[in-house]
Amino acid sequence: DVKVTQSSRYLVKRTGEKVFLECVQDMDHENMFWYRQDPGLGLRLIYFSYDVKMKEKGDIPEGYSVSREKKERFSLILESASTNQTSMYLCASREAGRTEKLFFGSGTQLSVL
Amino acid sequence: AQTVTQSQPEMSVQEAETVTLSCTYDTSESDYYLFWYKQPPSRQMILVIRQEAYKQQNATENRFSVNFQKAAKSFSLKISDSQLGDAAMYFCAWGGGSEKLVFGKGTKLTVNP
Q1: Per residue in A1-28, is it b (16+ CB within 10 Å) or e — as a string?
Q2: Separation of alpha carbons B83 and B10, rounded Å
Q3: Which residues of A touch B (CB under 8 A)?
Q4: Contact B93/B102 with Cβ under 8 angstroms?
Q5: Structure confidence by residue, pLDDT tens digits, B37-51
């Protein structure tokens, strides 16, 4: 089975801190995604990457950046965390091709105090 | 821009009964794919079913089936013989010419014993 691993299930950070959320997949997938999930708003795409060192902005990229130096790892970076970035963050990966299903990690619940 | 609308924030069903979750979408593309994902309390998102827009036949996976009405841009999910394990958030998603998926806001399904 494909495994998408997010480094932390719960994370508490202070306002202004630089925060790294890590995601690793073990199936050599080309595409990786970062979503943010908030109650009543569903999943919103922050960034996605379709190859190493390649990235594209999603619908809500402001306040975030990403890094993909190796195919299996996709990092989400909050340069200066703010309270409105308190949320559930979901990483996903899939093979190239829009028919392919997404494989999700189990999410990181981030609280910014 | 593509949008996905789930008009039912919450639904409930009695165990062993049938329930239908609604989803509508808006797109100008003619070739696209639709998905239903399930997120149980464990937070692990799981693909339930997918439908290619060019196929007229509705997709079926065991107790899960869809009613795909392309002209109406409607993609509802029917769950037959509901089980306690079906209790979850259900998300409808659209995928078109790019690698991105657009998700709806979700429907919380409660299954009553």
Answers
A1: eeebebeeeebebeeeeebebbbbbeee
A2: 17
A3: 31, 33, 35, 40-45, 48, 50, 58, 88, 90, 92, 96, 98-99, 101-102, 104, 106-107
A4: yes
A5: 999 998 889 999 999
Model pLDDT for residues B50-75, shown as the tens digit of each residue: 999 888 899 999 999 999 999 999 99
What is the DSSP code (8-state) at residue A84?
G
Quickly state the pLDDT bin for B82 (edges 50, 70, 90). Answer: very high
pLDDT at res. B1: 73
Instruction: Please give, rounded to a whole number of angstroms, the shortest distance from the CA of B90 to a CA of chain A.
Output: 10
B89: closest CA among B52, B42, B51?
B42
